[in-house]
Each structure stands twice: as C-alpha cells, then as structure tokens.
Design goal:
By secondary structure, the chain is an alpha+beta fold. 50% of the residues lie in helices and 15% in strands. The protein has a single domain, classed as Beta Polymerase, domain 2 (2-Layer Sandwich). A four-stranded antiparallel beta sheet has the order 2-3-1-4, sandwiched between helices. Helix 5 (94-104) packs across helix 7 (134-150) and helix 6 runs antiparallel to helix 7 (134-150).
Length: 170
C-alpha cells in the first residue's frame, strides 16, 4: 500500500493555471469518482490556492500513480499533461503526512497561519467519506486536529511564532 499526493499550489503554479484546476463543490464528487477508478481511496482538497489529490494505491509504482492522477486532472481541466507535470509536486507515504499536517496548520498557505484551510481539510474529508476513505480518514482527521495542539497554544494568529511541522515530527 502506498499513499501518493499530487498537488499544485501557489508556490508551484501561476494563478491562471490554478484557476483552471479549481473544482467547485459540485464537481468534486465527479472528480473523486474518476480517481476511484485507479485508486483504492482518495480525497480531493480544492481551494483558491491549491488542488491536491491524496490517493491510496495497493500495488503501483509512485511514478505510475503520479501520471494516472495527473491524467485525471488533465482530463478534468483541459490542461496538458506536460504543463501539469511542470507545475505539480509529488509526495509519497511519510512525506504526504508531513505535508498534510503543514497544510492543515496553514504553514503552507499564501498567508501563513490562516485558519480557513483547517475547515477546508475537514470538508474535503467529509465529501470523500461519501465513498471510501479509511486509511486517509485517519491521516486527515489527525491533521485537522493538529492546529489545535500546535498553533493555538502559540497564539499563532496574534504573534508570529514560526513552527515548522517537518522539524517537530522528524
């Protein structure tokens, strides 16, 4: 079993490309259906500054999973595969969990520490649970709770206090 994350965010892609990739709440179930044709489990996080597919594959090489997920994004958005590949990132297994924790805490947001992303992570999980998301469910639920454990005691919103999750959990 392998957890793969394919994403595009404000660091990796210009806003014009991110706008073309953005999925509305009505489109997300359709995209999840497409992803479930190739993956055992999936969650789609789509915000104004990022789109990320979290997927669990049973027996697949990470490069093959990466390309399959990019093809789905390409089909949905009309963006060519080479253009998507040039602006996307790939994380696998532990890297996925570390990245997810940073995203949920707002550490990788355009405005570091913003709290809206926490609700968006929870919402992405709720939409995915309409299908099947057992392995990812545990990861996303713990990521949604992490800001309460890390950021609130630090008064993140009031005083800038840099905590880098990768350093805390490694």
């Amino acid at each position: 079993m392998q957890i793969i994350l394919v994403g595009v965010d404000h660091v990796s892609a210009p806003i014009a490309l991110r706008e073309r990739l953005s999925c509305t709440q009505r489109q997300i179930p359709q995209v999840l259906h497409e992803i479930r044709n190739v993956a055992q489990e999936c969650v789609l996080l789509s915000t104004c500054n990022r789109i990320e597919i979290y997927a669990v594959f049973s027996e697949i090489e990470e490069e093959e999973g990466y390309i399959q997920l990019l093809r789905i994004l390409s089909n949905v958005s009309g963006i060519t595969l080479p253009e998507l590949k040039a602006h996307s990132y790939l994380f696998v297994d532990e890297q996925v969990v570390s990245h997810l924790y940073g995203v949920a805490c707002g550490l990788f947001s355009l405005v570091p520490g913003e709290s809206q992303i926490q609700g968006q992570v929870v919402e992405a999980l709720e939409i995915a649970q309409g299908g099947r998301a057992s392995v990812l469910e545990v990861k996303l639920e713990s990521a949604a709770m992490l800001p309460l454990l890390v950021l609130l005691p630090c008064n993140w919103q009031r005083n800038y206090f840099p905590i880098f999750i990768r350093h805390v959990f490694c």
